[in-house]
Design goal:
about 525 residues; alpha/beta; 11-stranded mixed β-sheet; 4-stranded mixed β-sheet; 20 helices; about 35% helix; globular
Length: about 525
């Protein structure tokens, strides 16, 4: 990729980046929605919801009439509703259903380790959009003062298998496997672990093969979900009897991460390094490439002009149930109506045939002018049994503070809410190999959460009567995911366990011999 280094030295910018820089966010999004509607107007979905009529409203003198018409004619969909009504026809090989043509690829996405797989359509237009945004992200590295010579180094991308399953008229697999199988020729020389290892389906075998080749590669960048990258680096360090990963990859300088918050992993991750890395966050979901960090110490910048139209539903009790289900009368807004500091659930309309589709993530804007955001959690991954409104963002921050305060490394964690006596309790499960006292952790964690969340503090004096902290080996989390067939790539452990997920988790821990949990469970 030497030519990329040359482009960086010249301060090269792609036209799409310049267009977004010099345009109003709402103007970009209006134009994007119009393009999507025009392209899909003759599909079965477009005819059913009368896209032609919506398109005529773009000529109205009333500025927002096009959006009001769009929301009046098309309902909000979750995965089950859009799949049952429309997407299942795509898997039967039918064409022109929600997007022109047939769909050749489906990304298997669960979102959490315990949920059944979702089949998300991936069109050729979406693959092109993902590639275009990837190039924009690569070129943004000039803002991080990455030396051009680093572009001569290898890029290790730890993703799903590129050996996709053929199912009738289409292929299915992890999005990372689909996109990696489509990488351009100019990137292949620098891409590791290479095509052969990337096809490996068994995750443990893949890690062993990568570790076996590690001493032959000159890696400058690593890309992947934090937990699995950390496991891989530990395996390499152990195999070659190293002190840090830099003993084998001295020029490793950049880590691109996404999928979950990196903060809870950072302390343990940095124990494996000899020098600091540049951390860059990215927001690539199975439904599309939503945002990426374009500058250091900033939020992720939404991509507003590349195949996705965004809507935002305020994440409030007026719009969502206590279980995180969206209410029928929920109201969405466009990007010019959002406010900094408030939480929103994302809706996407895309060039892969998703329409007003609730992706399940919640976000918060950090800078409206630049459309910079952070992910705060999932619509169904929060705790509010009695009004404590504890978000995943709160949890991540509390765990990070706890790690720093006690100088420990918590590699994974999850929490559940349950009845306790006549009121409620939270049950925390912390995965660590450090020797720590649960009662001390409980007191400190509770204190930090009270500082971070006023609602939590109030309810700890009222209905939230108790919290339990269970210290378990970090390996238990990975073994549980392996049991579910959810190891590697984009799979991550859910931060909040509810209903059947909690029952399955407790049964698994009991089978592993961690029987003190049963006592706590019975007390609840």
């Amino acid at each position: 990729m030497a030519f990329i280094g040359k482009l960086l030295r010249k301060g090269f910018r792609v036209n799409e980046s310049l267009e977004q820089e010099f345009s109003h966010n709402a103007d970009l999004q209006k134009a994007e929605l119009k393009k999507l509607l025009i392209q899909a107007r003759e599909t079965e979905f477009g005819k059913y919801y009368n896209f032609q009529e919506i398109l005529r409203s773009f000529k109205s003198k009333t500025p927002k009439e096009f959006y009001r018409q769009y929301t009046r004619q098309i309902p909000i969909f979750d995965y089950n509703s859009i799949y049952d009504n429309w997407w299942h026809l795509l898997r039967e090989g039918q064409k022109d259903i929600t997007w022109p043509g047939k769909v050749k690829y489906f990304a298997l996405s669960s979102g959490t380790s315990g949920a059944p797989s979702k089949n998300i359509p991936v069109t050729k237009e979406m693959l092109k959009a993902i590639q275009k945004t990837s190039i924009r992200q690569i070129l943004s590295l000039q803002n991080f003062k990455v030396p051009p010579k680093l572009f001569m180094k290898g890029i290790l991308m730890l993703g799903g298998s590129t050996h996709l399953n053929r199912n009738g008229s289409y292929f299915e697999g992890d999005l990372s496997g689909i996109t990696t199988s489509q990488i351009p020729f100019w990137f292949q020389h620098h891409y590791k672990p290479g095509r052969k290892i990337s096809k490996t389906r068994d995750w443990d075998n893949k890690l062993e093969e990568i570790a076996g080749k590690a001493d032959k590669w000159d890696i400058g960048y690593v890309v992947g979900v934090p937990a699995w990258i950390q496991i891989l680096m530990e395996k390499i360090i152990d195999k070659y009897q190293l002190n840090t990963i830099h003993d084998i990859w001295p020029d490793l300088s950049v880590y691109v991460h996404g999928g979950v918050s990196f903060e809870p992993y950072k302390k343990g991750f940095e124990k494996l390094l000899a020098k600091p890395l540049t951390y860059i966050e990215t927001y690539l979901a199975s439904e599309g490439f939503i945002a990426f960090q374009a500058r250091p110490e900033r939020g992720m910048k939404m991509v507003l002009n590349n195949g996705i139209f965004f809507e935002f539903v305020p994440f409030t009790e007026e719009n969502f149930t206590q279980e995180g289900e969206i209410k029928p009368n929920a109201e969405a807004i466009m990007i010019d109506e959002v406010e900094e500091g408030k939480e929103y659930a994302l809706l996407l309309s895309t060039c892969a045939g998703a329409w007003r589709y609730m992706i399940g993530d919640t976000i918060r804007f950090l800078n409206l002018e630049n459309a910079e955001l952070c992910i705060t959690g999932r619509t169904k991954h929060f705790l509010s049994l009695c009004g404590e409104h504890l978000s995943v963002d709160n949890m991540n921050k509390a765990i990070k503070i706890l790690e720093n305060d006690l100088n420990i490394d918590i590699k994974e964690f999850t929490v559940a809410g349950q009845p306790y006596q006549t009121l409620f309790s939270h049950h925390w499960f912390l995965g660590t190999d450090d020797n720590i006292e649960p009662d001390i952790v409980k007191q400190k964690l509770d204190s930090f959460l009270k500082e971070l969340n006023d609602d939590y503090k109030v309810e700890r004096q009222a209905a939230l009567k108790e919290i339990f902290v269970n210290i378990i080996p970090a390996s238990a989390f990975y073994k549980y995911m392996e049991m579910l067939g959810k190891v590697g790539a984009q799979n991550k452990f859910p931060r909040v366990l509810k209903k059947k997920q909690l029952d399955d988790w407790l049964k698994f821990l009991k089978d592993q011999g961690i029987d003190f949990l049963e006592k706590i469970h019975q007390n609840s």
